[in-house]
């Protein structure tokens, strides 16, 4: 603290030939790839800031992708892997691949995605607090910023799991505003603000002071965060809930399963009825003369028994055709008499 106070108070006077670096014009030479990446990130920042909660699944995927790819890229690029120093292209490829896996996990598992969203919110708030505190006090050990980052990240993650809607809106608004601030810093002063924040986190003894336009760019962050939170709360997130979407999908699946089960039961019942039930035959249309009187049958039997000869019975059987079947009826007039009966 004494060193910083002495540095501020004992600032050497600028000679007539020395100029304030903030007054010098910045040599803005943009490259194609960083400019395209910054423009794309600015678009994602707008979606994050103003439509974060509405695009819940996409935001969960992007949070896991960014978090996983950045962490793995820094580990691979700064550290030696298998006793070899990886190039920036190889480190970016490994980070992107692992980031895609992290994005899929955070998108499919809702609790993991919310936990990651809360960690991002905590890290951003801790970075902002450390940047402001560094203007007044510089910690003596690196464990202080590390502990602040981890503690704030875990606290916000637990709060996000408890109050999902509120902290998801706040986290997406703050993160989207931070992305747009970094993109503006690239196009205005070629990431001088980001470099200063990085040096403050590394506890560099005397980092280059920020110019007035750097503070203006930094002021965009809280302003956009508040604006994005209000827009989501009143407009884009109004009447939308990520839990209701998941419940409605489950209800639709249950309804489909119930309908299919009912169809299967109906098919089983119809198949069982076809195996046990026999259709009755169509009744034969009858007339009044088709029915044989019992007295006539009895007299016919007595006549056949009274003849005693097989020849007469054969002749009677040949000349008298009487159908004894109840269903089919007779085929000849019943008034026809045979020769045996006359004799």
Task: Characterize the structure shown.
It contains 13 helices and no strands. Residues 1-17, 308-332 and 336-343 have low confidence and may be disordered. The chain is mainly alpha-helical and 343 residues long. The protein has a domain at 32-248. The protein has helices spanning 2-9, 32-51, 56-78, 88-108, 110-134, 143-162, 164-189, 192-201, 212-236, 242-276, 294-307, 310-319, 339-342. This is Transmembrane protein 198.
Short précis:
The protein is mostly helical. It has a domain at 32-248.
* Backbone CA Rg: 48 Å
What class do helices, strands and sheet pairing give?
mainly alpha
Largest sheet: none
Question: How do the helices and strands follow one another from N- to C-terminus?
Answer: HHHHHHHHHHHHH
Q: Please give the count of helices.
A: 13
- Strand proportion: under 5%
Low-confidence stretches: 1-17, 308-332, 336-343
Tally of DSSP β-strands: 0
Average pLDDT figure: 75
Give the % helix. Answer: over 70%
**Amino-to-carboxy terminus distance:** 153 Å
Report the principal-axis shape. rod-shaped
Task: Describe the secondary structure blueprint for this structure.
Blueprint: H1 2-9, H2 32-51, H3 56-78, H4 88-108, H5 110-134, H6 143-162, H7 164-189, H8 192-201, H9 212-236, H10 242-276, H11 294-307, H12 310-319, H13 339-342
Task: Describe this protein with a few key phrases.
transmembrane, mainly alpha, Transmembrane protein 198, rod-shaped, 343 residues, TM7S3/TM198-like_dom, disordered C terminus, TMEM198, transmembrane helix, disordered N terminus
């Amino acid at each position: 603290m004494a060193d910083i106070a002495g540095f501020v108070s004992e600032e050497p006077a600028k000679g007539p030939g020395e100029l304030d670096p903030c007054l010098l014009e910045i040599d803005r030479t943009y490259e194609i790839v960083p400019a395209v990446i910054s423009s794309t990130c600015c678009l994602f920042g707008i979606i994050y800031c103003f439509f974060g909660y509405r695009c819940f699944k996409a935001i969960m995927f992007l949070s896991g992708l960014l978090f996983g790819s950045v962490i793995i890229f820094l580990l691979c690029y700064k550290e030696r892997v298998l006793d070899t120093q990886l190039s920036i292209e190889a480190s970016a490829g490994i980070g992107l691949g692992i980031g895609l896996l992290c994005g899929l996990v955070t998108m499919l598992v809702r609790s993991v995605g919310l936990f990651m969203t809360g960690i991002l919110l905590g890290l951003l708030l801790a970075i902002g607090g450390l940047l402001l505190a560094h203007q007044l006090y510089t910690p003596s050990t690196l464990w202080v910023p590390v502990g602040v980052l981890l503690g704030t990240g875990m606290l916000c993650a637990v709060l996000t799991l408890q109050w999902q809607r509120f902290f998801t809106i706040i986290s997406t608004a703050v993160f989207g505003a931070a992305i747009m601030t970094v993109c503006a810093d690239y196009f205005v002063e070629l990431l001088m603000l980001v470099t200063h924040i990085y040096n403050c986190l590394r506890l560099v003894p005397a980092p280059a002071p920020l110019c007035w336009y750097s503070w203006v760019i930094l002021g965009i962050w809280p302003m956009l965060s508040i604006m994005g939170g209000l827009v989501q709360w009143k407009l884009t997130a109004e009447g939308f809930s990520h839990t209701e979407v998941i419940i409605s999908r489950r209800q639709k699946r249950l309804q489909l399963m119930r309908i299919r089960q009912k169809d299967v039961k109906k098919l089983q019942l119809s198949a069982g009825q076809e195996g046990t039930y026999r259709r009755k035959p169509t009744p034969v249309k009858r007339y009044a003369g088709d029915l044989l009187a019992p007295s006539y049958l009895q007299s016919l039997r007595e006549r056949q028994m009274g003849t005693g000869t097989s020849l007469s019975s054969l002749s009677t059987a040949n000349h008298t055709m009487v159908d004894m079947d109840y269903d089919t009826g007779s085929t000849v007039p019943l008034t026809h008499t045979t020769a045996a009966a006359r004799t």
